[in-house]
Structures are given as structure tokens and as C-alpha cells.
């Protein structure tokens, strides 16, 4: 028997979608860096098909020093209808979830935000003391894109 993705109206889907919004809408797009540390695991790992591997500290510093060094220049948008969530259970007890989807990236060019790329992502969320923590990120299939 295979596990199906959870319904988009489920509490789990809504919870993880809100976590996605914290990471990308609040941290990546608005540079509210203080929102990031509380939701990523201490042993967090980020795997990027172009930039390589980063641990928790390296990941936070990369956002701070790259994305947020010039706020408002880079934006990320979730591709509508691309988000999917799958439960992870052990002995029928929920311990985590996989969240995957596609996102586009925009850059301010000549004063206008223009879509410049698209990529896939897969996030592994783990329940730690009843709180969802982002433990692993795969960011891959990056492609240039023009409007």
C-alpha cells in the first residue's frame, strides 16, 4: 500500500503551507530573518543543485548575506497548485512530512520584477516536541525562465 498525498484542506497541509510562507514570504521575500531560526532543526541540511550543501548556520548566513543584502531585489513565488504534502509515519504515528512543489524566482531588472528562474523543492519536516521543524531541503532542477 502506498501513501497518498494529504488533502489540501487537511490541517497538516495548511500547517506546512503556512511554514512555507514563513520561509519564503517572510524570510526570503521580506528578509524577516528572525522568523527562520525557530522553524529549522539544529541539524538542518540544505542540498542545492548549483550552490552545493549547507548546514543550518551556513544556510541562515547565505540568506542574510546574499538574498537580504539588498532587500527587494529577489523574490520567490510558489507555483499555484504545485504544492503536495505526504505524511511520514512509524507504527502508524505521524513523525514527519514531505512537502514538495515548484517555485519561480523574480529579480528586479530595470525597476520591474521579472521572472528569471524556476526550480523544484522537497522539504522534510519533522515533529520535534510537537513543533514542526524543517530538517532537510532539496532544491533542484533550477532552470532559467523568461517572461
Topology:
Layout: H1 11-29, E1 40-48, E2 52-55, H2 56-65, E3 74-78, E4 84-90, E5 93-109, E6 112-128, E7 131-144
Parallel strand pairs: 1-7
Antiparallel strand pairs: 1-2, 3-5, 4-5, 5-6, 6-7
InterPro entries: NTF2-like_dom_sf (IPR032710)
Summarize the main sheet.
7 strands, mixed
- The radius of gyration is 16 Å
- Coarse shape: globular
| Main CATH class | Alpha Beta
- Helical fraction equals 10-25%
Strand content: over 45%
| Helical run tally | 2
Average pLDDT: 95
**Beta strand count:** 7
* Second rung of CATH, namely the architecture: Roll
Specify the structural class.
alpha+beta
CATH topology assignment: Nuclear Transport Factor 2, Chain: A
Unreliable segments of 5+ consecutive residues = none
User: End-to-end distance, in Å?
Assistant: 42 Å
Number of domains: 1
Assembly state here?
Answer: single chain
String of helices and strands: HEEHEEEEE
InterPro entries: NTF2-like_dom_sf
